[in-house]
Amino acid sequence: MNIKRYFGKNSREALSMVKQELGANAVILSNRAVEGGNEILAFREEDMATLVARDKPKPVAAKPQPQTAVGEETLVSMLSRNQRILKTAEPLNHQALQQQRAQAASKKTTPQAQPKAVAAQAAKPMVKNTAKPVREQIEQDQLSQREMAQMMQELRSMRGAIESQLTEITWANIQQRDPIKSNVLSKMISAGFSAGLSRQIAEKVPAGHSEAEANKWLHNVISSNIHTITDEQQILDQGGIYALVGPTGVGKTTTTAKLAARFVMKHGAGKLALITTDSYRIGGHEQLRIYGKILGVMVHAVKDEADLRIALNELKGKHTILIDTVGVSQRDRMVAEQIAMLSKTGLPIKKILCMNATSSGETLADVMDVYKRCGLNGCILTKLDEAASIGSALDIIMRERLRLYYVANGQRVPEDIHIANNTFLAHHAFKMARKKAEQFQFRDAEMPFLMANVASSNMTGGRA
């Protein structure tokens, strides 16, 4: 193949030179602008045909098999032939001979068996590789999963709708058939207890009770399920290390000061120590320092786990140590850091959760789910004087079987803190319900719809 180079002032001039010399069917390899003009590389069409013909694969001739002369016999072949001839004959196996004859006879009777098998094998269709591309297969799997998830969601919705309707019908029948249970349910809902707990207790009202007997039975059930302490010997008199934990704004610092004041009045300031970890809030530890100065108790401020361990080692001779922790949201990651700081000291620190009585049941349940992981030893119910109903707080305490130590009902130190009394709390919860405004009261006709909503929320994963 003869490739030629043509140079012109422009592309048109170089192309005309190619046509004049190589013809109109010339093959152009490149056409590029160079310094001073344009350059074209080309060759004849006949050279391309020659090149294609040369690159075609030639058939490979079969190699002739080596043939040995019939008349010639090598020394090795002679020896092997003689060895076969001289081999000792083995005795004849008559049983094997009969089997071979029977097989030969069967083959003669069915001479078409083998051709049929061969034909059947040949008749089988060739299986083609129908595997789809990996990406398409993944997309189809994802689509199937989405369709299955949507179908399951629709089934759950249908089930929830059916259960809610059945619950509504059931409670409508209960109101007509057993108005005492309906009355108990209405009282608990109005007091702030959750619909789930109210339904469980209402279903267990003894048959044949009058309304007065059912109300008395209800008060006894609620009070018996609130675990309290009989006296302060189980907490301050016993001594130890107590850490007050909880979200921001529940009154941990004020409650710590109230407990410190009660202890000092009984045992003196020399047996008490106060520690605060509230280094985030501006002036957070100063509030406790003021209380400590009034009580004559030294307040130690710590920032991390190392400071807390050093402070506890220095105060190990104290009868009681109260720790006021920093208040953070229950959804803040600092809660885990705070719990880790208290748990890694190597000392038995009892954790007491401060619960705000004014919070809703959903909020208190969220707080409890986070703080119970650290192993709570008890709780204190704060801001009792600000709450319009305390049923939600009592509901959570009963569900978690948490021991209630104190209730706080004001800002005065130390007057506004009292040992929890389960009978008083049960009576107070229903007494506050009677004072509710009319727009927050549930009517009897609305109870079936409320219980139907509870059944629907349970199906969708809601909290009863």
What can you see in these coordinates?
Helix 7 (179-190) crosses helix 9. The protein has 464 residues and is an alpha/beta fold. The protein contains 17 helices and eleven strands. The protein folds into three domains: 4-51; 149-219 and 440-453, no CATH class; 229-420, P-loop containing nucleotide triphosphate hydrolases (Rossmann fold, 3-Layer(aba) Sandwich), CATH 3.40.50.300. Strand 2 (27-34) and strand 3 form a beta hairpin. The strands form two sheets. The protein has an eight-stranded mixed β-sheet, sandwiched between helices. Strands 1-3-2 form a three-stranded antiparallel β-sheet. The two termini are 90 Å apart. This is Flagellar biosynthesis protein FlhF. Residues 239-431 form the SRP54-type proteins GTP-binding domain. Residues 238-404 form the AAA+ ATPase domain.
Please name the CATH topology of the largest domain: Rossmann fold
Summing up helix and strand content along with how strands pair, one would put the structural category as alpha/beta
| Strand segment count | 11
Instruction: Give the DSSP E fraction (strand runs of 2 or more residues).
Output: 5-15%
How is the secondary structure organized here?
Layout: E1 4-8, H1 11-22, E2 27-34, E3 37-43, H2 45-55, H3 75-86, H4 94-109, H5 113-123, H6 134-177, H7 179-190, H8 195-203, H9 211-224, E4 240-245, H10 252-267, E5 272-276, H11 284-295, E6 299-301, H12 305-314, E7 320-324, H13 334-343, E8 349-356, H14 361-371, E9 378-382, H15 391-400, E10 404-408, E11 417-419, H16 422-434, H17 447-459
Parallel strand pairs: 4-7, 4-8, 5-6, 5-7, 8-9, 9-10
Antiparallel strand pairs: 1-3, 2-3, 10-11
Helix pairs in contact: 6-7, 6-17, 7-8, 7-9, 9-16, 10-11, 14-15
Function: Necessary for flagellar biosynthesis. May be involved in translocation of the flagellum.
Family: Belongs to the GTP-binding SRP family.
Membrane topology: Peripheral membrane protein
